[in-house]
Design a protein that fits this description.
Elements (H helix, E strand, L loop, with lengths): L7 H24 L6 H13 L4 E2 H7 L7 H10 L3 E5 L7 E5 L1 H13 L12 H15 L2
Antiparallel strand pairs: 1-3, 2-3
């Protein structure tokens, strides 16, 4: 049974939710052959941006798009897959740094090739539509 929409605002929220799910599933399918979740891939990409340097879990969390992600569990899984390493900071023994190995950096770059044209999911939109959509989505988040 189709959910009855109360008004256009309700329709907008439903559409945003469905579109987020659509995009998330699209990327999930692209990542499946690499045995990575979307969150794991984003984590690896953030670490690849600073490679060969490292980030603390807190710094990494700040760079993530999903504010609710459980960084400990996420990084535990990536450590178990030998994709990231945890190292005690030599300057501050209480800090733990997360970093890619050379091998995992090459792996992330290989996976990134799959996403070189990730904009294809919205390439049928005009430049004006994209600008309008970006403006409206930013307005929702920055009210």
């Amino acid at each position: 049974m189709e959910m009855q929409l109360v008004n256009e605002y309700h329709r907008l929220i439903k559409n945003l939710h469905m579109t987020d799910g659509y995009i998330f599933n699209y990327f999930g399918q692209k990542l499946a052959p690499f045995d990575l979740s979307v969150q794991q891939y984003i984590t690896l990409r953030r670490l690849s941006e600073v490679y060969p340097s490292s980030l603390t879990a807190g710094e990494l969390k700040e760079k993530m798009t999903d504010v609710n992600s459980d960084m400990t569990r996420l990084t535990d899984r990536l450590v178990a897959k030998n994709l990231i390493v945890r190292e005690v900071d030599p300057q501050n023994r209480r800090r733990v740094n997360l970093r890619l190995t050379e091998e995992s950096y090459r792996f992330v770059e290989t996976v990134a090739i799959e996403f070189k044209n990730f904009e294809s999911i919205v390439s049928h939109l005009t430049d004006d539509e994209v600008r309008t959509m970006n403006t409206l989505l930013e307005k929702i988040r920055n009210r």
